[in-house]
């Protein structure tokens, strides 16, 4: 089977196949009807699809179909040592954020990794966001714009549409650490025996930045979220099997990874910066709400009394800290309050 190169400059257009080549006429009709009904846009709406590849008997084949790939592009040679080029689905969720979305799109399509499926789920934006989507739609595999029931509902929509062996979430405003990070990760190792691969992130809030170095001790996930989901890659079948629990508003990602840990999925930490995370996200501003949802997750997942007790204590600590701040505001002037809070933070 011979692939199609639309544009070697971008990660999403280096190698595609025409979907109709693998389908019977009846299947083609059904998928076209489905796309029209769901208002799909992008490369998939033009009939293009992508696959994972692996080296077998010194020949590259489509992993899912066992079909030999003819005239493989030059980039295949760079992956001979590892013997695999997995399809990575990157999903971006956005609502009324054209600037953040364009920044994220550029970070994805300019990756030098050659096998990316890019999906964008817009929650029905009413500003310039749709113009940005249309501007880049010939480099986006699939995008939709429709109302949803919150960020985790939108992320679930993306999961259901993804075909990648691995799935990564890079939401609007977030970016990869650099343009070569995916190639560096997936060229150096075959991750087939692991289910979740995660690394480090740079956290950005205003003009301040700080590194978040993740621990390799995954048992600590019983206490807190150990990494940013932007810095993780999860096997596609796991996301499709579990999905995000949309009863959570702030911590469904923590709940998801806790479920994975309790289900004995295999985690691997790689000591590499993967993503730059925008701290303006909703969960980063709602400390008490996040702690309450951590507690809710440990109860729903029937964690040990020790683990649940720990989260009860954490909620109480945040409540007391919030109460203390309110009392100090009543007692001190704004200037003196700022000084006292600064001193408290310095001690901790």
Provide the β-strand percentage band: 15-25%
The helix tally amounts to: 10
Order of helices and strands: EHEEEEEEHEHEHEEHEEEHHEHHH
Quick one: overall form? globular
Distance between the termini: 61 Å
Task: Please state the oligomeric state of the protein chains shown.
Answer: single chain
Question: Unreliable stretches, pLDDT < 50, 5 or more residues?
Answer: 25-37
Instruction: Tell me, rounded to a whole number, the average pLDDT.
Output: 90
- Please tally the β strands and state the result: 15
Tell me roughly what share of residues is in helical segments. 25-40%
Please compute the radius of gyration using only Cα atoms: 22 Å
Largest sheet: 9 strands, mixed
Classify the secondary structure makeup into a structural class.
alpha/beta
Summarize the structure in words.
By secondary structure, this protein is an alpha/beta fold. It has helices at residues 25-38, 98-109, 129-135, 151-161, 181-188, 236-242, 252-262, 287-300, 305-331, 334-347, and strands at residues 17-18, 48-49, 53-56, 59-62, 67-68, 84-85, 88-94, 116-122, 142-145, 166-169, 175-176, 196-205, 208-212, 232-235, 267-278. Strands 7, 8, 9, 10, 11, 12, 13, 14 and 15 form a 9-stranded mixed sheet that branches. A 4-stranded antiparallel sheet has the order 5-4-3-6, with no helix packed on it. A two-stranded antiparallel ribbon has the order 1-2. Mean pLDDT is 90; it is low at 25-37.
List the helices and strands and how they pair.
Elements: E1 17-18, H1 25-38, E2 48-49, E3 53-56, E4 59-62, E5 67-68, E6 84-85, E7 88-94, H2 98-109, E8 116-122, H3 129-135, E9 142-145, H4 151-161, E10 166-169, E11 175-176, H5 181-188, E12 196-205, E13 208-212, E14 232-235, H6 236-242, H7 252-262, E15 267-278, H8 287-300, H9 305-331, H10 334-347
Parallel strand pairs: 7-8, 7-10, 8-9, 12-15
Antiparallel strand pairs: 1-2, 3-4, 3-6, 4-5, 10-14, 11-15, 12-13, 12-14
């Amino acid at each position: 089977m011979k692939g199609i190169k639309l544009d070697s400059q971008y990660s999403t257009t280096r190698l595609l196949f025409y979907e109709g080549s693998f389908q019977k006429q009846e299947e083609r009709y059904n998928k076209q009807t489905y796309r029209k009904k769901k208002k799909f846009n992008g490369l998939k709406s033009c009939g293009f699809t992508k696959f994972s590849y692996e080296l077998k008997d010194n020949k590259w084949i489509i992993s899912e179909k066992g079909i030999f790939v003819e005239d493989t592009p030059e980039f295949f040679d760079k992956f001979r040592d590892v013997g695999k080029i997995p399809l990575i689905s990157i999903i971006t969720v956005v609502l009324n954020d054209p600037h953040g979305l364009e920044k994220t799109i550029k970070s994805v399509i300019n990756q030098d990794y050659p096998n990316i499926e890019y999906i964008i789920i817009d929650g029905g934006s009413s500003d310039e966001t749709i113009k940005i989507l249309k501007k880049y739609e010939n480099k986006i595999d699939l995008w939709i714009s429709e109302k949803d029931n919150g960020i985790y509902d939108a992320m679930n929509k993306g999961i259901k549409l993804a075909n990648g062996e691995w799935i990564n979430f890079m939401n609007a405003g977030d970016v990869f650490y650099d343009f070569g990070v995916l190639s560096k990760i997936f060229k150096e190792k075959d991750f087939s025996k692991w289910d979740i691969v995660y690394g480090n992130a740079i956290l950005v809030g205003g003009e301040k930045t700080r590194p978040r170095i993740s621990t390799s001790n995954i048992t600590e996930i019983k206490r807190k979220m150990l990494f940013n989901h932007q810095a993780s890659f999860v096997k596609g079948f796991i996301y499709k099997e579990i999905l995000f629990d949309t009863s959570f508003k702030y911590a469904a990602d923590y709940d998801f990874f806790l479920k994975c840990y309790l289900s004995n999925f295999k985690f691997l930490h790689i000591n590499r910066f993967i993503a730059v995370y925008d701290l303006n996200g909703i969960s980063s501003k709602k400390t008490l709400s996040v702690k309450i949802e951590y507690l809710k997750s440990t109860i729903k997942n029937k964690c040990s009394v020790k683990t649940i007790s720990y989260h009860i204590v954490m909620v109480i600590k945040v409540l007391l800290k919030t109460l203390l701040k309110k009392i100090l505001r009543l007692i001190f002037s704004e200037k003196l309050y700022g000084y006292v809070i600064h001193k408290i933070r310095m001690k901790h």
